[in-house]
Write a structure and sequence with these properties.
- About 70% of the residues lie in helices and about 0% in strands.
- The termini are far apart.
- It has a domain of about 45 residues.
- It is mostly helical.
- InterPro entries: T4SS_pilin.
- It holds the Pfam family T4SS_pilin.
- Keywords: Membrane, Transmembrane, Transmembrane helix.
Length: about 90
């Protein structure tokens, strides 16, 4: 009885084959890189739209101050330049 008790305390291992799922799903590095770039373009496009909206609000709330209005124009300009860089990087 005591022998069975101690045997049950010991972790028993199963001698079976363990299969793991392929996390890459059989894709090559080139396919993964292309997928990453396409997701980056989607994310960058969303950021560009947000930055253009922020620039528009900066211009809207400038209240006649030329330096604040120019700040909004710069924000929109840099957002468009960033979007152009993203598009050129995608090929």
């Amino acid at each position: 009885m005591l022998k069975n008790f101690f045997q049950n305390l010991i972790i028993k291992t199963a001698h079976a084959e363990v299969t793991l799922d392929d996390p890459l799903k059989g894709q090559t590095f080139e396919k993964l890189l292309a997928k990453f770039i396409s997701e980056f373009i989607k994310f960058g496009s969303i950021i560009v739209v947000i930055m253009i909206i922020i620039g528009a609000f900066q211009m809207l709330f400038a209240q006649g101050k030329p330096e604040d209005f120019k700040k909004g124009i710069k924000t929109i300009t840099y957002a468009i330049i960033g979007f152009a860089i993203i598009l050129m990087a995608s090929g």
